[in-house]
Amino acid sequence: GDSVTQMEGPVTLSEEAFLTINCTYTATGYPSLFWYVQYPGEGLQLLLKATKADDKGSNKGFEATYRKETTSFHLEKGSVQVSDSAVYFCALRPSGSARQLTFGSGTQLTVLP
Amino acid sequence: DTAVSQTPKYLVTQMGNDKSIKCEQNLGHDTMYWYKQDSKKFLKIMFSYNNKELIINETVPNRFSPKSPDKAHLNLHINSLELGDSAVYFCASSPRTDSYEQYFGPGTRLTVT
Question: Which partner for A33 in A73, B15, B36, B111 could form a disulfide, CB atoms 3.0-4.6 Å apart?
């Protein structure tokens, strides 16, 4: 079945450091890929998405590129801020309609001032 | 003007009790979901409703019974609560079943003692 594998956390960085959170997936066909973010005490919010191979999703300084050849969708940010501290979830939605999201296990990010 | 709201935010109860969690969305969406997030932040879908009709029912014990009185509400009733039911339960909604983005509520932290 479909699955998403994220790098294990927690990840602790200093402010202005470069961030990479790895995500790889297993799915048939061409799934859509997402990054969701969960701030402390809140529900998940969509951060960015990519719906086909080589698409780059971006939002709030975060980027991720849909790599079909490596089945990856790594999240990057050039300079993190304390306010980026949260749990980040990679997710996929299989191709075709009426299919649910499959989430990775989440990666806790803490950014220190 | 909260988009997806859940009540209660916290719920502490004893084993064997029956409890309900309520969810409402004011976004006019057709599709609603219940997710369970365990202590390791792993997020798994439980149910999905589209226009008050059940469309996804994952392998969840039949002690869990969702009810959708109208398309803006999706409540979760749990009978005979067990210790393993302790988790954070998230409600979410999306415009349609094939929509890319889901909008999450703030979560209900259920603790069974």
Answer: A73
